[in-house]
Specification:
The chain is α/β, with parallel strands linked by helices. It has twelve helices and twelve strands. It folds into two domains: 100 residues, no CATH class; 353 residues, Rossmann fold.
Length: 470
């Protein structure tokens, strides 16, 4: 809850609970507070921004201010001091707090690295690849890519919105959660730590490059906490919206592409058509390779774009969540430019058979929520993990669920009941994921060792740690 919101809520509470509060304050303190509250209300709208969850509070604040003006000349205590009516006022106050508590404005964790964070959004089109998920054979693959990077602090910079094009993308997210469209209208009140189009930091350049793939029905911004954390530690991260697999993609011209459910066709009610899933993953692997090609072009460009001569493309990592985790495995197998991979709750069933059989040569870390995945997926993981040529890590985090690797657990304290997280505290699991992700990529791409990667950590006792030597 934001500071001006808290002040306004306290003032409204004082007025609603006037029969009770009168015992604690003297004179016209409550009436004066209601009038001052209107000033805080104006500041709140200007500085923090309106949100629908506060509508009942706004209404009662205005009523309280008007009542204070009308009753200004009245003397004595409030005549209404019955226990029943005082109880009803208390119940009413608690009811108006419900939407505020259930749908708060989340605060992302502060990045812990030495760098400020910048971000930019790019549109890329791969004219060499046909878009197989549309009817028009002339369509080619189009991608939105958001890049987080170490930045020079820009005092006049504007913080990036949490979710670009919220007015177009918001309905798809609300539908995914089974909520009315308006419920998520407040999401862009979330304060990121990323300055939009900030200057790239020069100290420490060139920076290692990481490419992120979301899961089926995910988005490029689903784990903003992790993107900002990695960028603050000196990485350039390119996160891809994989169109028709992402929950929603909004192109620069305003056109909206939703997830195409029929892509993952089913042979029966319970059996997935594995071939369609493999085709999907092959397309996503192509996306990763294309984006890395584009980054190479930008790095070598003499035209002076943001990343010219600033990317260390000898140090590249791929990572992802769920389907994107499987894509990280397959992309590292396909593209030898990958030096290390990290997969969070990797869905491996769509991974090509030859990848499972050969496994990968690069060091790899697998992060798992508690007991996620089918028996078949676990068997495929064992094949990949046992076949690793390089160093391997397999870490399971107690008390977590599949979406604990994203920002979704911060959206509401009801997240555990919506199936969006496990019982572990949301900020605690973000701390764990961030710490191990940074430690792994620092080890593999910067040659910096970490005590976290030696064995079980006293700091993170929730983590079941397993390491496989090369």
């Amino acid at each position: 809850m934001r500071s001006l919101e808290i002040i306004i809520i306290i003032i409204v509470g004082m007025n609603l609970l006037k029969p009770i509060v009168r015992r604690l304050v003297v004179g016209k303190t409550i009436e004066i507070a209601a009038l001052i509250g209107m000033g805080f209300f104006v500041l709140h709208l200007l500085l923090e921004g309106y949100r629908w969850q506060m509508l009942p509070v706004y209404l009662f604040l205005v009523i309280s201010a008007i009542s204070s003006i009308v009753n200004w000349r009245r003397q004595g205590e409030d005549p209404d001091r019955s226990i029943l009516k005082a109880g009803m006022r208390l119940l009413l106050f608690l009811l108006i707090l419900v939407p505020i508590v259930v749908f708060p404005v989340p605060n992302l964790q502060e990045p812990s690295g030495e760098y400020s964070v910048g971000t930019t959004i790019l549109y890329m089109q791969d004219f060499s690849r046909e878009e197989i998920y549309t009817e028009d054979p002339s369509d080619t693959r189009e991608l939105n890519v958001q890049i987080w990077y170490p930045a020079t602090l820009d005092e006049g910079g504007v913080l990036s919105p949490y979710l670009a094009n919220l007015e177009l993308a918001g309905p798809a997210f609300a539908d995914f959660l089974g909520l009315p469209t308006f419920v998520l209208n407040h999401v862009n009140l979330v304060k990121t730590h990323s300055i939009l189009d900030a200057p790239l930091a020069s100290a420490g350049s060139p920076f290692p490059v990481l490419i992120f793939s979301h899961g089926w029905g995910g988005t490029r911004s689903q784990s903003t906490f992790l993107m900002e954390e990695l960028a603050s530690h000196g990485y350039v991260i390119a996160a891809i919206d994989h169109p028709y697999g992402a929950l929603v993609t909004v192109y620069p011209d305003g056109s909206v592409v939703l997830r195409k459910e029929e892509i993952l066709a089913h042979q029966s009610q319970d059996q997935l058509n594995v071939q369609s899933a493999k085709e999907l993953l092959s397309t996503w692997t192509g996306d990763v390779r294309f984006v890395l090609d584009q980054l190479e072009t930008m790095n070598a460009s003499s035209e002076g774009n943001l990343f010219t001569n600033s990317l260390d493309l000898e140090k590249v990592g791929f990572f992802g969540h769920s389907t994107g985790g499987g894509n990280a495995v397959q992309s590292c197998w396909v593209d030898t430019r990958c030096d290390a991979g990290l997969a969070m709750d990797a869905w491996l069933e769509p991974v090509a058979e030859e990848v499972i059989e050969d496994s990968v040569n690069q060091p790899f870390m697998f992060l798992w929520s508690e007991d996620w995945g089918s028996d078949e997926n676990k068997a495929l993981f064992n094949d990949v993990y046992d076949g690793l040529d390089g160093l391997g890590y397999s870490l399971a985090i107690a008390g977590t669920r599949h979406y604990d690797f994203s920002d979704l657990p911060l959206l509401s304290p009801l997240s555990p009941w919506l199936g969006l997280k496990g019982p572990i505290d949301g900020r605690r699991v973000m701390e764990i994921i961030s710490a191990y992700s940074v430690a792994f990529f620092d080890e593999q791409l910067k040659d910096e060792s970490s005590e976290l990667l030696v064995g079980v950590s006293d700091k993170f006792t929730e983590v079941d740690f397993e390491m496989k030597e090369p």
